[in-house]
Amino acid sequence: MSTASMYLAEPSGLISLALFLIAVALITLLAGSFWLSCRMRTRAPRLPRAEEQPHVPQGGPVREMREIREPAEIPKVTKGQHALTPYELTHMSTRTSPSQKRERWHDGGSGSFGSGGLGHH
What is the C-alpha separation between 69 and 100, in angstroms, rounded? Predict the structure, then answer.
């Protein structure tokens, strides 16, 4: 072995001191984060008790209602009137459709764009 390799293999006091200071900094950081989380947990509002939890309504659970809806018609513009702009339209509501039959895709159609097929002709 050469003298240079022996010098590089020799432990240095400065490296040991740096590693010790890094270890002390990490332990201090962990202890500080633990103290901060305990402090935040004591300031947090308490969890609700069982009697404060929401309860099922008297009539039983609320169920999902499925129905076919159709939009309200946009008012027709006659000749001589100006066309309605978006801000002149009110909140367009929907109503229950008289026919509750679900519309289906045509036979031979995929129902999506760009499927590569010829579609319904």
Answer: 8
Coil, helix or strand at residue 77: coil
> In what helix (H) or strand (E) does residue 3 lie, and over which residues does it extend?
helix 3-9
Count CB-CB contacts under 10 A for residue 2: 7
Strand locations in 1-121 (E): 69-71, 94-96
pTM: 0.35
Burial letters 103-121, b for 16+ CB under 10 A, else e: eeeeeeeeeeeeeeeeeee
Mean pLDDT by 10 residues, the chain (121 residues): 62 79 97 96 90 88 86 81 80 82 69 57 53
